[in-house]
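Example record used in the benchmark description.
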Amino acid sequence: MTAMKLTTELAYGRGTPPQMQHLLNRMCNPASLLDAYRSSREALGTGDLVIAINALDPSRFQIEPRSVVIERMQRLARPGAPRLISGLEQMSAHEAERLPAEEDAMWVIILRGEKEMPAACVVYAIRRAVGAVN
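Model output (structure tokens):
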């Protein structure tokens, strides 16, 4: 029997700018993000989730169903303001990346004061053999 070690990496949705990838890599611990997503998926009964990360304190993030985030953003939107989250409004992260609903995929919004920088972020686990177990 071969022992397996679980490592976690972040993969980004198509079109995610390199500067956003760099920012997320610097701010997020992939294993913590994945654990938070999985526990929230179980607690909330849905995998269609959005994780909001505050750039000033990335260790504390908020996870909500996408429908709740969309409703709040629509309420807070100023008339004539550009819609920064139109992709998030249109489809789940799973649909955007063409992934099965049981996969770990979420929208990530980085909050920087008044600005929000949305990006689709797919988190997945890769298993690698580390040695034989007798």
